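Course assignment 3, question 2. Fill in each field.
Student: A.L.
Task: Predict the tertiary structure for the chain below.
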Amino acid sequence: MAITIPKLPIGKETTIALNVERAKAKAEANSEHWEVYIIETTSGKLYTGITTNLDRRLNDHMQQRKGAKFFRFSSPKSIVFRESLKSKSEALKREYAIKQLTRSEKLKLINNEA
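Answer field:
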């Protein structure tokens, strides 16, 4: 939905419409659930991240140009952990907490022993 203000110079309507669409997209992103995930690589390393669409993000990681640089040296093998959260803020905090864990603590979390 674009808001048009007829008295503005030509070109301003487009800018306003784009800003409205961006605001809507941002609001929708905030209303979506966020997921913290851990991917195991072919070499056994663990990568932690957040996203609103895990299937898309895994596909991004598998395509080396769009995914994290982490996967340039070892390809993603499988998603070994995922946790849904209500907001991006909560997901970022949880991601940070997981990244602070040792490998053995992450493996316990993955195996549901934490």
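Instructor remarks: The CA atoms of residues 36 and 83 lie 5 Å apart. The two ends are 47 Å apart (CA to CA).
Grade: pending
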